[in-house]
Design brief:
The structure holds two protein chains of two kinds. By secondary structure, chain A is α+β, with helices and mostly antiparallel strands. Chain A contains ten helices and 26 strands. In chain A, 27% of the residues lie in helices and 30% in strands. The structure holds protoporphyrin IX containing FE (HEM). Protoporphyrin IX containing FE sits at the interface of chains A and B.
């Protein structure tokens, strides 16, 4: 052990003896083992190791789609992994067991330490040891003048001025300072408990809901208003504030400088302009939500998490109507009319949309559609998008592949609005059918569907924003405890805790110091104290280092 | 890919301009190359210094001090080139130069050198670690310019926040301190290794003499500890700042994203290290190993996790 870590620094638990006989003896043994430093250390390392698999396998909490595709790709292995809770590592039995044990150990450790520390704070520094020369920093002066009577009083006054707690003990002064080190350590550990409690409490009352809004749409904050919603254990629906929010406009700024090779088309800013009403009758207020700038509403915050295009489409069972001048328009009644959110597939917003028309006559059909904001052609002849925004109304293109057959919407099984199970359907256009996919331009001519099924038109282009509405009452507390623990940590690691002794002997004077923990300044302190007391002699440091 | 129109017509959405200067970023790269060249010479000079200082011939040992002086001057020159390169990169991109892996690498290594140069004024014992440090910086710069280089790009909206400055600067600083500490721990472990101590092979005799130039084990252990505690405080701050930022950018303060997981793992390993220092039977070698493992986890987090793990922190800038 090195000199700067005196024995009182290292946890000086005696080796923990094997359990005594009897239940009480055994329990005591378990408790003492659990609250020992060694156990805390091992649990910490175990916790680090146990966190690793969560970064290797997709987690349901962070990446549910990843878990689904893992199940599709390796169904057998996925089952085994799922049995081991490897898709839910951070709520798994084994991960929880480790951190719960760690925190029990922590409490068992902090409580007695707090008591010891409280006692130390009110009791005087310990008596001067007999052999000061054993201390890691030591100074001796054998000048006679040293034994002047005032030396003890001078030393006491000096050390007191330097912030030491001082006790005069006959011919010697015993002084100690840096109690804040241990206070900081305790604050640090207790605050960790605070963090854990606040995380748990916040999680229980929290909720997180998602809603996709197309420009012009309005969202009302109740359970029916959400596309998906995950509440904490104690969430109560009545706590949802009855606000409503409309997406007035969604804008993106892309880098449109063609000289910025490799950067042209990169998004620079996303802005969702919204109007909110806090209660149904109240005045609407306008706000802008950006990435990194959520909108704070009473009882929740609204975050911008995604966006894309929402072409407005109309489908009718009647054929398109030809007007003079080659213009073709669609006529109602419509089997579908409205904005369809298309999911972006790449950085240039090549987007995929799905439309299901269960009410179309005579046969229901589904449509798989691609949208290219600025269409270009790949060498293979396939379309792609070459710029993420529509450079002109004529530049963006929408293609449609039509599938007829039973869409399976009547079976009662909820189906994903963003995917079309083409299995069992008959494709009528695009792909290998030999029929060209239908191509539409925004506000352009309407087009006939294959097999005289009707007409389709691309009447407008809007955007959508994916919003996250979140509430977590524990957040502020987590932050508070985290900052407290940071403060405690700084005190605990940087405040030097040391004892200094000045002793008058028959031959002269001795000054010695002992640190608890690492203290780079220990030897300097001894020299300085001696210096202040009027001894210019060189320190004779006790070099245990060599 | 079809070519874009030469001039994009005015578009019907919000406009905002970015300023990127590719020529300047090229100049920045030349400065980095120049720094690498001088680092190479400095590194070799440090190796030469060690071999001379550990020589059995007295005359050689005498010359060693001068070699070290020259090596130090070279180190300062390379640090200047390096610093220019970093600043120019920031000017070229009109923002802080740490938004992708190439930029993290050049800024991070520059901070390592800067921390080292400042610290060695106060802590003379770390001067001898220059050989580790210059070698490490050279290696990272080599990988960065070869594998991670990307043209200057604008910031994605999630990164446009003053937290990029706070969180990332502190993370890089923490890494710098951990880096120097791990060099001390490695020297400590080598000195304490039975193999090095007792082997009769020739190479080991030289290694022993070289290691003899390093501070004694006790001092190395303390050095590592002092740099690690600073690193740990900074890392704790990084973790908290990251959570605050995540709350704004990703709507939750903690979500076990892969990068968050690794930040946590690293924090926990170093907490283990601090405990080990105060636990009988664990202080000394075992805690030194923990410090080295902790630094390996940092490197792993920066390389493998950035490049191959799936998560929200996708900003390596590489496809
Ligand atoms: C969540 C679990 C824990 C974490 C993250 C943790 C973290 C830390 C850290 C970072 C330090 C160094 C800073 C300081 O000195 O205050 C430390 C010190 C310390 N911890 Fe913990 N700790 C945990 C649990 C425990 C437990 C269970 C015990 C008791 C068995 C314990 C006892 C101590 C002691 C005695 C020190 C002081 C060591 C010294 O003086 O350097 N800790 N802990």
């Amino acid at each position: 052990m090195d000199s700067s870590r005196p024995s009182d620094h290292v946890s000086n638990e005696a080796p923990i003896a094997s359990p005594e006989l009897g239940v009480v003896g055994w329990l005591r043994w378990v408790w003492r083992s659990l609250t020992s430093m060694r156990t805390a250390l091992i649990l910490l390392l175990l916790l680090a190791a146990a966190a690793i698999p969560g970064s290797i396998y997709p987690q349901r909490s962070a990446d549910p789609n990843g878990v689904t595709s893992y199940f599709q790709q390796n169904p057998e292995l996925a089952k085994v992994l799922d049995g081991l809770q490897l898709f839910d590592v951070y709520s798994s039995v084994w991960f929880s067991a480790i951190y719960i044990l760690l925190f029990i150990s922590l409490i068992g450790c902090v409580v007695p330490r707090t008591i010891v520390h409280a006692k130390a704070m009110v009791s005087p520094p310990p008596v001067t040891p007999r052999k000061l020369s054993r201390m890691p920093a030591y100074f001796i002066s054998k000048t006679k003048s040293a034994s002047s009577d005032s030396i003890v009083g001078d030393a006491a006054a000096l050390l007191k001025k330097q912030g030491y707690r001082v006790e005069v003990d006959g011919d010697s002064v015993s002084a100690e300072r840096g109690y804040l080190r241990e206070t900081g350590n305790l604050i640090f550990h207790v605050s960790l408990i605070g963090v854990l409690v606040a995380v748990g409490f916040g999680g229980a009352f929290s909720y997180s809901g998602q809603r996709l809004l197309v420009e012009g749409d309005t969202f009302v904050n109740n359970l029916a208003g959400y596309d998906s919603f995950s509440p904490g254990a104690f969430f109560n629906e009545n706590n949802l504030q009855p606000f409503s929010m409309s997406l007035d406009k969604f804008e993106i700024a892309f880098d449109n400088n063609v000289d910025h090779v490799g950067n042209t088309g990169t998004p620079i800013d996303f802005r969702a302009s919204v109007s909110t009403k806090l209660t149904p009758g109240s005045e609407a207020s306008k706000a802008v939500i950006r990435v990194n700038e959520p909108l704070e509403l009473p009882g929740s915050k609204v975050y911008l998490t995604g966006n894309g295009y929402a072409p407005v489409l109309a489908f009718s069972d009647k054929p398109c109507k030809a007007l003079p001048g080659g213009v073709r328009v669609i006529e109602g009644p419509f089997s579908y009319e409205g904005a369809v959110p298309y999911l972006p597939q790449d950085a240039n917003y090549t987007s995929l949309g799905v439309i299901k028309l269960p009410d179309a006559k005579p046969n229901q059909y589904g449509v798989l559609s691609f949208f290219y904001p600025t269409a270009g052609k790949l060498p293979t002849g396939a379309f792609t998008s070459i710029y993420p925004a529509a450079l002109s109304p004529q530049s963006s293109l929408l293609t449609l592949n039509v599938y007829v057959g039973d869409l399976g919407l009547d079976s009662g099984i909820p189906s994903n609005v963003f995917s079309l199970a083409t299995h069992g359907l008959k494709q009528l256009s695009g792909g290998k059918t030999g029929v060209k996919p239908i191509q539409l331009l925004v506000k352009g001519n309407a087009q006939d569907l294959p097999n005289h099924m009707g007409c389709v038109a691309f009447t407008d282009l809007k955007r959508f924003a994916s919003l996250d509405i979140d509430y977590n009452p524990g957040q502020g507390w987590v932050l508070l405890f985290a900052l407290l623990s940071l403060g405690g940590l700084i005190l605990s690691l940087l405040v030097p805790r040391r004892r200094v002794w000045v002793k008058r002997t028959s031959e002269g004077v001795e000054v010695a110091a002992l640190a608890r923990g690492d203290d780079p300044a220990l030897e300097k302190i001894v020299v300085e104290v001696a210096d202040e007391l009027g001894f210019k002699a060189k320190s004779k440091k006790k070099d245990t280092d060599a | 890919m079809p070519k874009l129109l030469q001039v994009l017509p005015p578009v019907f959405h919000a406009q905002q301009t970015v300023s990127l200067n590719d020529d300047l970023s090229q100049v920045s790269l030349y400065f980095i190359y120049a720094a690498m060249a001088v680092y190479t010479v400095a590194f070799l000079a440090y190796v030469w210094h060690l071999s001379q200082a550990a020589s059995t011939v007295k005359a050689n040992r005498k010359g060693a001090t001068r070699i070290e002086k020259w090596a130090f001057i070279l180190l300062i020159i390379s640090a200047l080139f390096h610093g220019f390169g970093v600043v120019l990169r920031g000017v070229a991109a009109s923002r802080v130069p740490w938004a992708n892996m190439y930029e993290f690498s050049i800024t991070g290594t520059f901070l390592v050198v800067a921390i080292y140069l400042v610290s060695q004024v106060f802590v003379k014992d770390i001067r001898i670690l220059a050989v580790f440090m210059s070698g490490f910086v050279l290696l990272v710069l080599g990988i960065a310019t070869n594998q991670f280089y990307v043209q200057v790009k604008s910031l994605m909206p999630a990164l446009q926040s003053y937290w990029l400055v706070i969180h990332v600067t502190v993370a890089i600083l923490a890494t710098g301190f951990f880096n120097i500490a791990s060099a001390a721990s490695i020297a400590y472990l080598m000195k304490g290794s039975k193999l090095v101590e007792t082997s009769k092979l020739k190479g080991f005799a030289l290694t022993r003499r070289i290691l003899g130039l390093f501070p004694d084990m006790n001092k190395l252990e303390k050095l590592a500890y002092r740099f690690n505690i600073i690193g740990f405080i900074l890392w704790t701050f990084t973790l908290i700042a990251g959570a605050i930022w995540a709350e704004r950018a990703w709507h939750r303060y903690w979500g076990w994203d892969t990068k968050e997981v690794w930040t946590f793992i690293i924090w926990t390993i170093y907490a283990g290290y601090l405990h080990a220092n105060a636990t009988r039977g664990w202080s000394g070698k075992r805690s030194a190993w923990l410090a080295v493992i902790g630094f390996c986890a940092i490197i792993f987090n920066f390389t493998i996790v950035n490049l191959f793990f799936k998560g929200l922190h996708v900003y390596s800038g590489l496809k």
